Amino acid sequence: MYRVSFYFPLTGDYTDLYVFCVQGGYLRRLVTGVTPNDPTLDRTPNDLNIAGDFDPTRKECVAACEYMTRLEQTPQSVLIGYLSRMHRQGFIRVIGPLIDDPNVRVPTFSFVPTTGGISVASVVAAAHSAKIAIRSGNMYGVRLLEDLKIDPQQGVVRVSLVHYNTEEEVEALITALNDVLLG
Q1: To 5 degrees, how large is the angle CA 21–CA 26–CA 30?
Q2: Mean pLDDT lowest for which of 62-76, 98-112, 133-147?
Q3: Other Cβ atoms closer than 10 A to 34
Q4: What is the model's pTM?
Q5: 72-183: which CATH number, 3.40.50.2300, 2.60.40.1180, 3.90.1150.10, 3.30.230.10?
Q6: Is the Cβ–Cβ distance between 110 and 137 less than 8 Å?
Q7: Which residue in 118, 153, 161 sits closest to 136, CA to CA?
Q8: Start-end ranges of CATH 3.90.1150.10 in the chain?
Q9: What is residue 56's predicted lDDT score, i.e. its pLDDT?
Q10: For residue 98, what are the CA distances in angstroms to 79, 163, 168?
């Protein structure tokens, strides 16, 4: 999930993270204790390279990934709590486990609205209106969606959290989702 001043399409995967890691020493910055929301990270990639090279060690990569997982935990817990409640109340169908254990799932969530008249597209449009970028579609899982009895043409709503998302951003997403799902 990205909070943006305008909407732009995102891959929803770690492609952007890879660019930071390889071109900017971003992983090394995380390991040294710089928080992901630090405004000093809004610099050119060469300025981010604090170690003088672009090749973090395996140990630094593992430490950075563990740190990112810890940073993702609170936003993930908040979102899965909300999605679980909406699932139990019959407003949405969550695809995948309804738990926030990082050993079981990554913080990427797919769901479909289950109340009449609310489409996947309208849910995504509500988030975009709140300047929150989430995606919809079949995510190249046409046969999987067919097996789950979900129309692949409509697809699912997908929310992908990453280590720099905050609890406040998740709360803003929840507000946008409530606006469309609860009317």
Answers
A1: 125
A2: 62-76
A3: 15
A4: 0.76
A5: 3.90.1150.10
A6: no
A7: 153
A8: 72-183
A9: 66
A10: 10, 20, 21
